[in-house]
Fold this sequence. Notes:
CATH topology: TIM Barrel
Number of domains: 1
Shape: globular
Number of strands: 10
Bound molecules: 3-hydroxy-3-methylglutaryl-coenzyme A, magnesium ion
Helix content: 40-55%
Strand content: 15-25%
CATH superfamily: Aldolase class I
Largest sheet: 8 strands, parallel, barrel
CATH class: Alpha Beta
Distance between the termini: 35 Å
Amino acid sequence: MSARVSIVEVGPRDGLQARKEPIETAARVDLIERLRLAGVERLEVGAFVSPRRVPRMADTAAVMDAVGSGGRAGDMVLVANERGLDEALAKGARAIAVFTAASDAFAERNIGSTVAASLDRFAPIVARARAAGLFVRGYVSTVTDCPYIGRIEPAAVSAVAVALRDMGCAEIALGETLGKATPRRIAAVIETVARDVPMEAIAAHFHDTYGMGVANVWEAVRLGVRTVDAAVGGLGGCPFAPGAAGNVATEDVVYLLEEQGFKTGIVLERLLDAAASCHRRLGIAPSSRVFKALRGSGAG
Ligand code: HMG
Ligand code: MG
């Protein structure tokens, strides 16, 4: 039996959060429905964060209603504070993600607090979410590089990963926010974190600015990571990480893993349909090599 890698589709959240132009709720809903048709089981529907800071996620409650997220274990939303958790619970969310970083400079710009203060803020949120039976993911951003202070040591990442795990996060997503690291540094950070956090609890969340995303995903999988984040069409970027491009494209990751003998449960052709539809409806051309190879550069 082939090994399975679980893909977490982050396009509807990470993929769209930094767009300048307004995005119709219906377009985000359509994208999510097409992703589900392609076989995506875990996806980030949106984020309950400050709409002033991230306007594109302001309609997350409406999107959750429209796609029937309430009660669905695979649908996850980002939660920035207690108020965000209240909203997630009110919508029947079964999975949330809290998010901090390995760098104070990034955390301060992203969530308005140092890493230590953010951990203090998230501890009661995670406890309350767990008590309500939710699955909780904890993100550590800037695991190799920070846009403001440069290189990050793996030990700093591990300390934050352990703190998140100790407060009750079932999964630790390692965010290579800038998308510039190569497999050597990805391996160093995964090996360091995996000394303290079980490999099964680690997820790889890589951006693709320098085109290293697929190589980095392969390195993570080679080391034993079995949960990989990706965004359809290579959408994405964080509004507080200047210079960072989209997430590694889901179609590139699916192509890589299936060709390497892993099962993802995702049907590549349908995933390409979702990327093409996103292009048609939102005018965002897929950046992925696999999309271009199989569909050309058009909206299809
Ligand atoms: P703050 O600005 O420090 O202060 O926010 P605040 O708590 O006073 O809130 C500011 C405003 O937001 C207020 O409204 C609040 O009412 C409102 P105003 O008075 O200005 O009109 N507000 C909210 N509204 C709705 N729902 C809420 C909520 N909370 C506050 N839940 C805060 C602190 C953490 C809330 C803010 O900084 C924030 O929302 N940050 C989120 C930033 C974000 O979403 N970043 C992108 C996601 S992280 C990422 O992309 C990286 C990742 O992909 C991994 C990787 O790639 O590395 C995960
Ligand atoms: Mg990200």
